[in-house]
């Protein structure tokens, strides 16, 4: 059985050795509003509280802007658990999180009609 010392508690054959809800101490709601596309970035501030190994790995992934979805994929954790971990990091000042930027662009009606026509022809 190989368990990496610096990563999430995984076993090559068995998979995750700890249930996801134990990683978040049973919490299912993050304290920070996060979207899967929210960009998370380390601030360089060292957390003053003890954090688990998943927190440390998540923090290590945030050297540059990283989405919550990417962090969840690397940690191999459900998105809701990852959001709780990231919100812990936001709360202690170790990372910042910014919602995705969507630009208000009115949709071209003729483009939508052309797409609809194309879809109807496929049926």
Would you give an account of this structure?
The protein has about 120 residues and is of the alpha+beta class. The protein has five helices and five strands; from the N terminus they run E-E-H-E-H-E-H-H-E-H. It has helices at about 20-25, 55-60, 70-75, 80-90, 110-120, and strands at about 10, 15, 40, 65, 95-100. It has a three-stranded antiparallel sheet with strand order 4-3-5. Strands 1-2 form a two-stranded antiparallel sheet. A hairpin with a 3-residue loop joins strand 1 (about 10) and strand 2 (about 15). The longest helix has 14 residues, at about 110-120. It comes from Streptomyces pulveraceus. Pfam families: DUF742. This is DUF742 domain-containing protein.
List keywords for this structure.
single chain; 123 residues; alpha+beta; 3-stranded antiparallel sheet; disordered N terminus; DUF742 domain-containing protein
């Amino acid at each position: 059985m190989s368990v990496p010392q610096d990563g999430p508690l995984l076993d090559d054959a068995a998979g995750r050795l700890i249930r996801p809800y134990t990683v978040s101490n049973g919490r299912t709601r993050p304290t920070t509003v996060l979207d899967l596309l929210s960009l998370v970035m380390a601030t360089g501030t060292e957390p003053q509280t003890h954090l688990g190994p998943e927190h440390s790995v998540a923090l290590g992934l945030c050297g540059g802007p990283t989405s919550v979805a990417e962090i969840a994929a690397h940690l191999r954790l459900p998105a809701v658990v990852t959001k709780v971990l990231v919100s812990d990091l936001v709360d202690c000042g170790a990372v910042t999180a910014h919602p995705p930027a969507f630009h208000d662009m009115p949709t071209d009606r003729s483009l939508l009609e052309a797409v609809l026509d194309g879809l109807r022809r496929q049926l």
